Structures are given as structure tokens and as C-alpha cells.
Predict the structure.
Amino acid sequence: MTKTNPVRSLSPGEIVFLGTGTSHGVPVIGCRCPVCTSEDTRNRRTRCSLAVGLPEGTVLIDTPPELRLQLVREGIADLRAVLYTHAHADHLFGLDDLRVIPQYLQAPVPVYCEASVQARIRKAFDYAFEEGAPAGGVPQLDFVTIDTEAFELLGAWVTPLRLKHGPWDVLGFRFGDAAYCTDVKQFPEETLQRLRNLDVLILDCLRHESHPTHLSVDEALAIVELLRPRRCYLTHLCHRLDHAAFSRQLPPGVQPAYDGLRIQTELMPHPDGVRKFSLPSVES
């Protein structure tokens, strides 16, 4: 029997923070610090992921280890595509939870990523690509290789953004007037130019102390001062940042994100000549 999609789509421009924590998650295993033992639910941070409502459906950014819990918590099952920022474990290793999505799409899940990410997926999840693997028992994926060229996705214009995550090249993404830049230490000049005139900037901010692969609080605020988005939400937060106390330290227009936060922004239609890929239609 064909299963129908049980949950409504996100509205165009609706953004849901599925996870906002560092690679350890918060609480950290074995830690008894004030944040890890806090009763404030905003201090409970699963690994980073984002869901974005586009005109023709919802796109997921990254598949962290808690993906199933995140999607069930937020009532999201209508995923039409997945984008990957990079292939580190905290952004990738929930991929197996995508197994159910083809039942709603009646087709493999379109996965947009760089060639290096596809190679890591094929290695880490090799069982999904074995000949004769049962369709319902493994993730069914349809890879689309991307780089930093803008492309059309679900009726919107998506611009991949080159970021430097310490020694690694990773991607951020801009959707209309909103941009998502997690896991970043340095911004190439071309990327800074692509981040002008933002309504919403979602930005990496690990902790107050310096880190070799992530922005510190001061570094993140310097990027905010440079780009001057109308709103900025800080993500990939570690257990050294208490939500309430940190919120009071931040300038107007800047706030820490938290798991389950929903915001709204505007989307721009894709321009003529932008790269286009075909997606499967959804059967109801």
C-alpha cells in the first residue's frame, strides 16, 4: 500500500532549527557543568541541522546522529531533498534515518553535495549501494553533485557558499535573504560578497575561547558587524554557553538559536539561467 505524507509542508521561508549543538551535543556525556545539568530546555542541543521551507517543499540540511528524534519532535516528514555542508560525523551519520522518506516521495531522496561528500557517504554507508540490497532496508539516494554555482531547487534559488572549516573546505547555503554558515573559521572574500544584504544570518559560534576550526564568540560578532544582517542566530553552541546568560551578553539583533526554534524569512524566485535539476513529483 502506498503511504501518504502524514505531515504538512513548511511554509515558504519557514526555517526550523532541528539541532544547534556542537559535535559532542549538550549535555555532554559524563559532564555535570551548570549547562549540562540545566533545566532550561534551550540548553539541550542536538547536533546541527536545519529544515527550510521552499515554494515546492522542504529541504533538509545535513543528517546528524539525532535526525529521527529531531524530525519526530518537529513533526517533519515531507522532505523533498537533502543538502550537505560537509561529511563530518556530526553532520552525516544520521543518514540511515532517511530510509522512510522514499515511501512518501515514491522515489529515492535527492541528495545535493560535493563529490568528496558523496565519496564519504558511499564508503561509510556502503551497504546502501550493494547490489540486491532490499529497497526498504537501506537509504535510497539520488546524488546530485554541486559546487559553488547557484542552482534552482524546489522553486527557489540556492547559492552554495565556500567556507573554511580549519583545513577543510565546506559549504554554507544562501536561500533568498537567509544564509546558513555552520562549521566555519574563515570566509573567503567571494563568500563575504555573497553574504551582503541578508535578513537572516545563521552563524557558527562555538564558545568564547578560540578554536582552530570554529568561530569564537568575538569572531562571530566581528562577522556580524562586517555583514550587518538584520537578524543573526548563533548555532553550533557548546556547553560553555548558557542560553539565558549568553543572550544577555549579545548585541541587539543577535541571539543564540535553540533546538526547535522557528523563524520566517523571504525567499527570492530563481533567476533565468540558473542551474536546474529535475526532482521527482510527490504522490499523495
User: Anything to note?
Assistant: The chain has one domain: 14-266. The chain has a mean pLDDT of 92.
